[in-house]
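Chapter summary example.
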Amino acid sequence: MRSYFSILLLFLFSNQLLAQDTVYLAGDMRNYEDSFVFRWNTKRAIDFLALSHSNLVFEIKSQNNANWQNLTTFNAINPDAWANSKSEVDNPTILAAAAIKQMRLLMDNPIDDPATAIQREQDLNFLWMNLSLAADISPSAANKCHLRFSLKKSDATIGAMFRLYLKTDKYISDTFYFLPGDAIYKQISIDAPTITEKENEVELMWLPDKKFSGYYIERAEANGEFKQLNRAALVIPNQEQTQLFFKDSVENYREYLYRIYALDMFGDKTQYSITVKAMGRDKTPPSIPSGLKIRETLEGKLIITWDEINANEGSKGLALGLRHQEGMPYLPIENQLLPLNTRSYTISIDPLETDYYILLQVFDTAANSSSSEAFYQINDNTPPEAPKGLTALVDKKGVVTLKWNQNKEKDLQGYMIYTSSHLKSEFSGVVNVAQVDTFFLDTLSLKMLNKDVYYRVVAVDYRLNRSPNSETVKVLRPDTLPPVSPNFKSFLVKDTFIMLRLNTSSSDDVKQNYLCRIQNGSNKKSIIKLNSNDTIYRDFGLEENTEYSYYMYAEDFSGNISQKSEFLQLKTLKNYYKPAVKLFTVSYDTIAKKVDIIWQYDMSTVRKVLIYKGPTPSELSKMPDQVEKDSNSFSDTHLKKGEWYYAIKLYLKDGSETLISIPLGVIIN
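The structure predicted for these 669 residues follows.
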């Protein structure tokens, strides 16, 4: 498999380099006052080899002529003939000729393996880029390489079109068209380079423009002529390059003038940049001063000493700087330079400062300097004062904001924060490295059961002296834990009444227990507040033969709601005994000799009516007579003298029945 892949890769590279199908062209043209100049190139190195071996046809199509006419035909390139006339030989032309020869030589050598094929393609691209650069900066080289054509303007060129293609039987040629515009070329201006003056060197830097093929740098002495410094054009080495640099070796303090210009692909020069002045300057600092020491006296002074300074290095004077904190800038001790022969300097100790950083600098006449540093620390056992004004606030998410007043000690390093869950327990560090801010944010765990959290702050100086503790502040941990759910123990169900035995929430922070009742099949919902010691609830006034759902939940003082208890589904009993008829009258008709019994009831719900009769209220018996359907009255004509009592009972269509009514009596004569 490996051998097959190598042969296939070799075959592909061989075909690519030896048998091109199409030659691809690209180009542009420029409109001058009296002529047109056409520039082109191939898109690949291998295409240029095809172009160099072929006839290149350049044609015109005039405005008044529908046919294309030949302007010139470039025959195959012969780089060996370019050196016949010495007057035409220049460096870019020689470079282009050498590149073409080498490209042809590479193609004449057989390919042995894929690695060789890859290397050959890279070499071809490199040579092609070099000859392309030579053609850009030298119109003569471009002409020799058949990459340029110049045409004088005439009546025939007005409104004309142009085209370019290879005339060959070996390849398919890409045809490239030129359509002249009306704009006349004007010389382009470019920005001046920026200058960096170094010792015996001037560095020029500028932002290159990719439309230019190369840059040239010129230099002149004061009132002298400009001379070109780089023989070869300075080009952008890669697409990612954002700046170009040129370094010129010069004598120090000798002034020079610099300017740059660029060439584009037509060989046209830009305008010269603005002239800038520069010179080399002494950048070598004097020797680093040695022996810098600090010692303290009993009189509260610091004596600074150092070794003798070498005056033969062009040194000018000395400067001393002082600071009391690392990272801060040094402040000069004296406004003027000290003489070079100075060997010591004395300063007074500031009672509020403990750290002394000393900088000794030596300056030469060119303002170059070198320096040494020394450090001295005054003994300090005095701690800062305890922080004051400590406050703490906590939000519902458990974020605690601590704030306190700023201490006034100059040597204060910062503050450390400590916390504890119990006032009498040991406090642990929340921040064990001194922080400079006078506020701190802490986040409390919301899953812990202890409510109280305590904080205190300690100030620390740079000697790690610790202040006494600040006052202690307390915050309450936000309660986000819901209470334990209440539940049901047992129940008793009647037709219009349900009794529930309850277990209220066992949490000690419960504010309220709730009992919820939902009448199934309707939107009726009731929420009943329970007392914490309620263990029985009697739910009166319910509808018979109706389903009800009950559940409970609890709320604590922080507004946390427990989970709902399990739902209790209950159905009230059906009551088959309805209340007795109350609107009921009994009267004796002395004329008709009958007893009329009348009652009021919704007779559309009544299936049957029974009338009871007896000599006493306790001796009633059912009368055999039937009451007519839907009638709400009955007349008893079977009478006997004496005191008689009557009662009524209804049987309803839903299967229930009323209780027997209260007996009513009459006296029959």
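To summarize the output: Helices lie at 2-18, 45-52, 91-108, 114-137, 139-144.
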